[in-house]
Amino acid sequence: MTIQATASSVPVLIGGNWENLSADEYTDVYNPSTGEVIAQTPHCRSGDVGRAIKAASKAFETWSVTPVTKRGNLMFRFRELLVEHAEELTWLICKENGKTFDEAKGDLARGMETVEFACGIAHLSKGEGLGQVAAHIDAVTTREPLGVCAGITPFNFPAMIPLWMFPLAIATGNTFVLKPSPKVPLTVNRFGELFLEAGFPEGVLNIVQGGKEVVETLCEHPDIKGISFVGSSRIAKQVYSLGCQHGKRVQAAGEAKNVLLVMPDADVDTTVRAIIGSAFGCAGQRCMAGSLLMGIGDIGEVKDHLLGALSDLSLGNTSEDQQVGMGPVIDGHSRNRLLKVIEDTDGAGRNPIVRDGRQSLPDSGFFVGPTLIDQVTPDQDLFKTELFGPILSVMNPSSLDEAVDWMNRLPYGNGASIFTQSGGAAREFARTIQCGMVGVNIGVPAPPPLFPFAGWNNSFFGDLHMQGTEGVQFYTRQKVVLSRWDNTYKRVNGW
Ligand code: NAD
């Protein structure tokens, strides 16, 4: 955190205008591959957030009565612009987040799927009707927008997570105030430019920047009706409590500790490929990253193949080189925190470090190499705590039942995957595991936008998840109209 802006300051979008604020506080935006500061994010004050909410409230007056087909058509246009600018956006994600080119492409592609989902809003937001619920009375429900909604997003998916929120909220007739992570504000601002270019009216999407003060203002402001949050569980819980206390709908997704369970009959090649993608893709900074590898019986062959593949994984500058195998973590704080976990584990001498991510790191940037820690047990912090980096802990339960028992002791409930050729084992696993997203021979069981992103326990606070029909329900409320039309007109008019 610095006090004065030196690199270019990131503008905010209020009522269709881009403004350069002079703030008291800024967050440095890094290129994590090099450690260079590429921009600075100003922290808005409550007054700036209030102006954005006011602009959104004004826009709501006309946007909420804009025909649904027109809303859908503008969303199609936004989608086309995202396609047109996909390569530029992908490099921007690499630059501000450190993802590899393919990972950044995936971030954008998954986000665009949500935009495509939102394009079908006319069909998605249809209500229900039932004729003759009583004599001469018909009942019809419609889905009405809430008003101004807000989105607060984390650093790890600069494209996908903001796109989980504002397209669906806006397609359903709401207006929106988005606050991205101050660590990755650039992709979201580019979305803001393309959104205006698509023809959405001024004030429908507003973008503010900052941290705690902005978030608290959004949670407390009487004109905000719904809040979508994604980030750490501590802040998710705070946002949920504060938002609910102020009478808002809140959906708040938090941390995770996801398990990859390898059964003795698992196909080694498929499993190893999935483990690498899940545990080390995006440098382990995914809420669906597998961070606990449980093996039933002897998984020596899987471990050997895994170690071989990890030694081929090249670390490098993802903002320039499309072929890099693994990128950096987000900033120096994360790097030091993760290196300390490895150092402490090494110092304690309890768990063998089969692969040590402190070795052969690039000279600059925030790199941590892939790390494998063996013989972890359920009493250890390595089991319970989300590390959010490329560190995989290996555990050896004696049976499927014991593995499930261990997993169900975790405080979170995002994802878990099983690798097996046995339908029976897969079914038993899927039925008994206490989490919301289950993979069978899939490393990252993140559902496509037609389905909810269904975290449980401390991975989600709220009732309705993001994505899918739950997403549509979250951003709308139902109105039930009961109409009585009898035959009086015959008697009165003689028709
Ligand atoms: P974070 O909690 O630090 O930040 C998330 C958002 O909250 C940011 O916009 C940030 O500016 C804001 N914020 C930070 N401190 C705040 C405070 N004291 N008061 C109010 N707002 C505050 O999370 P992060 O480090 O950006 O993201 C990583 C976390 O997000 C991981 O824990 C990861 O598991 C989680 N995540 C969860 C999902 C999911 O769907 N469950 C998806 C992606 C990431």
Characterise the protein shown here:
The chain is an alpha/beta fold and about 500 residues long. The protein folds into two domains: about 10-255 and about 455-480, Aldehyde Dehydrogenase, Chain A, domain 1 (3-Layer(aba) Sandwich); about 260-440, Aldehyde Dehydrogenase, Chain A, domain 2, CATH 3.40.309. The protein contains 17 helices and 22 strands. It has helices spanning about 45-65, 70-85, 85-95, 100-120, 120-125, 160-170, 185-200, 210-220, 235-245, 270-280, 300-310, 330-350, 380-385, 400-405, 425-430, 470-475, 490-495, and strands at about 10-15, 15-20, 25-30, 35-40, 130-135, 135-145, 150, 175-180, 205, 225-230, 250-255, 260, 290-295, 355, 370-375, 390-395, 410-415, 415-420, 435-440, 455, 460, 475-485. Strands 14-15-16-13-12-18-19 form a seven-stranded mixed β-sheet, with helices on both faces. The chain has a six-stranded mixed β-sheet with strand order 9-8-7-10-11-21, with helices on both faces. Strands 5-6-22 form a three-stranded antiparallel β-sheet. Helix 8 packs parallel to helix 9. It is globular and about 90 Å long. The relative contact order is 0.13. The protein binds nicotinamide-adenine-dinucleotide (NAD). Nicotinamide-adenine-dinucleotide (NAD) binds near residues 253 and 388. Nicotinamide-adenine-dinucleotide (NAD) binds near residues 155 and 386.
Overall CATH class of the largest domain: Alpha Beta
Distance between the termini: 77 Å
> Total helix count?
17
* Adjacency order of strands in the biggest sheet: 14-15-16-13-12-18-19
pLDDT < 50 runs, ≥5 residues: 1-5
- Report the count of strand segments: 22
Mean pLDDT level: 97
Cofactors, ions and other ligands in the entry: nicotinamide-adenine-dinucleotide
Q: Kindly report the name of the CATH homologous superfamily of the largest domain.
A: Aldehyde Dehydrogenase, Chain A, domain 1
**Rg (CA only):** 24 Å
Strand coverage percent: 15-25%
Q: Could you give a short account of the major beta sheet? A: 7 strands, mixed
CATH topology of the largest domain: Aldehyde Dehydrogenase, Chain A, domain 1
